[in-house]
Amino acid sequence: MQRRQSSKTPKQPLQVHHKNQTDLSAWRKGGRIHLEKSVQNDQSPNDQKNDSKQDSLEQALSYFEKVQDRVSLKKNDVLQKHLNTVESIALQRGLPPEGFDVLLNVALSGKLADTVNTRLLKSLVPASVIPENSVVSSVSWLCVSKCSSNIQLLFLRWLITVFDFIDHKEQLHALYGFFFSFLQDEKMCPYVCHLLYLLTRKESVKPFRIRRLLDLQAKMGMQSHLQALLSLYKLFCPELVTITLPGKMKTYFKNSEGPWKAAINTVRRRNQENSPVSQLLFLGTAQPQSRKRKWNTQLIIPASSTNQNNLEEDREKNHVDLYSTNESFPVEQLQTFSQLLQNIHHLEFPSQMGSVLTNPLLLHYMNCIKDESIYLRLYYWMGQTLQEECTWCVADNNRYEEEFKDFLETVYKTECFLQEGFSSCEEFLYRSLPLWDGFCCRSQILRLVSWIPLSSFSEMKSHLYDPLAQLFFTSSLYFKCSVLESLKELLQNWLNWHVIHLDSESDSQVYSLNTTLSGLVNVVAELIHFVGWISTAALRLENNPTFLLYFILDFYETVCDMYLRYNLPLLIMPPAGVFYPALLSMDSVSLNQLCYIMYRYRTNLVAAKQNELSKKKILQFKFSSQTYQEYNQYIIAMVGCLWTSSAFQKDIHPQGLRMDDELLKKTTVQEFKTSFNIVYHPAMMGYAVLFLQQAWPDDMTFNFNLIKGKKWNWYLEYLYAQGLKGLKVFIESSINRVSQASHSKA
């Protein structure tokens, strides 16, 4: 089919820049032009049906292109027929690139009633890409005010929704000032700000535009869309925007997607199922994807506004052009780290920010340059995507759980690469966790939890701890262990962040959650208390399983070393509901783990006490006497159990093992005093049996009373040789007799 001429002004045929974009005839056949030879002469009934639909679409487009005078929908069967044809095909297969010029021109020219124009605009669902020339041509109709304000508003909403489907954006950037002039319309202002937010570059920021936005803010009040645009301006030119803006907003813009988002997803799925060639047409990518969901399409760097063929020719002619410092370097040509280093100051990020997630070179750039505008754009895109595509928050998304898992995995890997969490992920978790079943995307969600940025406790308690606790107590043992592992990684990420930023020049820039180090200490303390609480309850619910106890003690291995390893003035002892199940565990791994933890607690507390006594500087934080008291109570209980066999008499902890002798005699256990020393302890008795077999191979009575005196020291050496290093360092640091004997022997 030949390219039609618009009824408004004669135009030249649309020059298609992308090498994979085809004309309407090729689109009708569902493939590229060079595939025509492979089409069989005998068409199936479905093919004939498709051809019939496309003939109807051609007729409808021809009709709308030739409309001259204002036409009413009432009693006009021809208009009704063609309008239904456009709507039907748009919702089934999407419209070809060449159909947008015709339909946009007629919808914005005012030749038809608003009801017809509204239906036409709502039918503008792309099958592949949208030509930039069509969008620019339609924008020109806004200058002559032929269409009503409602149609203009609907057009802006459509433009925002399909922004990433427009093949090029250079001419749109040239219209920045034109769009800016529409800010004076209060009804259109939120959507104009949204569009400007997508189009803004550093060169777009001008003093007169900042003054205009400030005037509008003074007139309308603190509007989120104005704050969003001002925040972006301030990131590009902080010297021009001197006012103080809110640090973080939950949502900047109203939802602009209307009916198009769902229709686009439906068309993509249907085209994917019907024709594998449609994969090549979608957004110009020649690499087939599993399914064209929003994040999959935007994880590939799109082509720039320069013709791809010309880029290839220029690259062959002159390689020096790739490193020119006068012009921006196209990111789709960025292939090596050396290219990144040579062009690092004039890279321009793609409009589709999702493509940054899978490009290590661009992630290196983000780490090196720290351009806040890039983070702002990425957070906005990611927040929108997570909110719209969550499989348990949005109806009919359950079928795409695997793709959503892949996307969450990509986000997690990006956070690990950058070594920082995204605020948009934090907001997504806070919104979605109360609705989460604990099963869908479990591994990915818990990994994202481990990268939640520091925030105030009140916010984390209501949005993270409370919904997580409900799932924790009602889920399986494996889920409980997964949550504990995630919270341990969260604690480690916070502590690593503290170490990295400890020597920062400006503390006010580092500790933004409460502007002081005390804010960090309080939030970390609340996390540790929360883990202690759920761990105590979980051990009771699950009857003290060794598997669960391992993850709990693994968490406290990080807690016990916070003062020396991470330079954080905080130490919190495990609750009695964790300490005593570990002390009385029937598994030697748990007991050995507990011994090592108590050894590290002692090392950290001794260092803190020495630091306090040295008085070389005024300390902002000091450990409370309660921490030392609780540690001493635990040490008395451990030494009484493992060494002196006096735990039942000397344990002074309120929840400890202290019992009267009369009560112990009623248990009918003969040697109850030695029941938990390193020979008779249920976790150590297996080692004692093996030691007796090696020391007295002919004695089959297994007389544990033989392990005393010099044999006791031999038994200790035997235990150390079995890999119980935690037990070794605990005994040598906390019991003087063994420590002195070891030194004298050495």
Task: Describe the structure concisely.
This protein is mostly helical and 746 residues long. Helices cover 58% and strands 1% of the residues. The protein contains 37 helices and two strands.
Topology:
Layout: H1 24-28, H2 45-66, H3 77-92, H4 99-108, H5 114-122, H6 132-140, H7 149-161, H8 170-174, H9 176-180, H10 189-199, H11 207-220, H12 224-236, H13 260-274, H14 278-281, H15 294-298, H16 308-317, E1 329-330, H17 337-342, E2 347-348, H18 360-369, H19 372-389, H20 401-418, H21 423-432, H22 442-449, H23 457-474, H24 477-500, H25 507-510, H26 517-542, H27 546-559, H28 562-565, H29 576-583, H30 588-614, H31 625-642, H32 647-650, H33 661-665, H34 685-695, H35 710-721, H36 725-734, H37 736-745
Helix pairs in contact: 2-3, 2-4, 4-5, 4-6, 5-7, 7-10, 10-12, 11-12, 19-21, 20-22, 22-24, 23-26, 24-26, 24-27, 26-27, 26-29, 27-30, 30-36, 36-37
Describe the protein in words.
Among the domains are: 50-167; 454-502 and 513-614; 624-668, no CATH class; 678-745, no CATH class. The protein is elongated. It has helices at residues 24-28, 45-66, 77-92, 99-108, 114-122, 132-140, 149-161, 170-174, 176-180, 189-199, 207-220, 224-236, 260-274, 278-281, 294-298, 308-317, 337-342, 360-369, 372-389, 401-418, 423-432, 442-449, 457-474, 477-500, 507-510, 517-542, 546-559, 562-565, 576-583, 588-614, 625-642, 647-650, 661-665, 685-695, 710-721, 725-734, 736-745, and strands at residues 329-330, 347-348. A two-stranded parallel sheet has the order 1-2. The model is unreliable at 1-43, 276-298, 300-326, 505-515 and 738-746 (pLDDT under 50). The protein has 746 residues and is mainly alpha-helical.
